Amino acid sequence: MTEPGDTARTRTVDYLRTRAASLDARRIRARVRSAGAELETALAGLVETDARRPVRPGEWTVAQVVDHVAQSTVRAVEELRHLLAGRRPPGPPIYEGLLSGAAHRVPWSELVEGLREAGAALDTLLEEATRRPPDDWAATVPTILTTDSPDPGIEPEPFAAELTWKEYALVQRLHFLDHREQIRRLRAALGVPA
Q1: Strand 157-163 and strand 141-147: pairing?
Q2: Contact, 158 vs 145, CB < 8 A?
Q3: What is the DSSP annotation of 16-72?
Q4: Exposure check for the chain: N or C terminus, fewer CB within 10 A?
Q5: Could you tell me the pTM of the whole model?
Q6: Collapsing DSSP states into helix, strand and coil, what is residue 139?
Q7: Which residues have CB under 8 Å from 84's CB, separation 6+?
Q8: 163 DSSP 8-state letter
Q9: pLDDT one-digit tens code per residue, 64-122
Q10: Nearest to 111, CA basis, from 75, 78, 79, 69
Q11: What is the CATH number of domain 4-190?
């Protein structure tokens, strides 16, 4: 008998493998690019005071979410660069709570610009993949994924999976979309319309 967490992990990995197998590099790039644009759109009109205003104790502010996505994307670009060259990336995986520690002091405009720059670097790398298929499609990277529970009282459960470059690129898309939704919820709680 399998545990509910095992089923959710299997479903997540199966989804990534199935989607990656059905998409070429051009279509993966388009999906990642679209998700990045949706994330940026969710930030439109936010001012610094609202971006830094906490909703609940212990919950990230919008500024921290933006910092997290930017920092994670910078690391993802480096890992993806190795995968596209047919190498396993060195170092530990990107953990789900990655922050630079600067979200509370760096001006909001710089945090947003950092997010844009990281997204542009990811897009450039994926554009290269459309012109030059990777030498070794079998290289993998250890990746920390999370499963969501339909019960809001249950925290997401992190787990590790080995992913190919296409699967890993699709995780970046899902990461953008998950945090887009988080920003929308935070804006609604702050009373700041999108």
Answers
A1: antiparallel
A2: yes
A3: HHHHHHH--HHHHHHHHHHHHHHHHHHTTT--HHHHH--SSTTSPPHHHHHHHHHHH
A4: N
A5: 0.91
A6: coil
A7: 125, 128, 129, 134, 165
A8: E
A9: 999 999 999 999 999 999 999 889 999 888 877 888 888 889 999 999 999 999 999 99
A10: 69
A11: 1.20.120.450
